[in-house]
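Entry 14. Ran structure prediction on the chain below.
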Amino acid sequence: MPILIQACIVAATIALVAMAVVLIRTIAQLRLTAAQVERTMARLDASIPEIERTVIEARGVIESLGQVTTRIDQVTREFATTGSKFARASALVMNEVVEPAAQIAALVRGVRAGVSSLAGTFLKKRDVGSTTTPYKGGNHDE
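Output, structure tokens:
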């Protein structure tokens, strides 16, 4: 056989051996990767029930929050209704009690001022019409 063909056969053999070595290493790496994937999947399988429980609990919490929000809305409406009732009652008290009471108080002050003025005038006239000597009593015959 010619030397060129022998060199090609050697080169092809070396290439084939190199490819076999690379293939063996790749297969070994794939085995390690497969083992890691298997461990990860086992952990994931173990975690799935916990995740499902967490999701169910989260749904329960969300439902509870929805109910709380609904109740808060109801309480807020009740407070608004109560506030408007208090406002109407306050306006009623102001219109029906306080304002007439203020008018009566003003009328009483006016009557007091008028009576005081009349009494003052009456007392002044009585004092002016009296004698400067006080009455000492006694008999008309004296």
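The helical segments are 3-129. Will compare against last week's run tomorrow.
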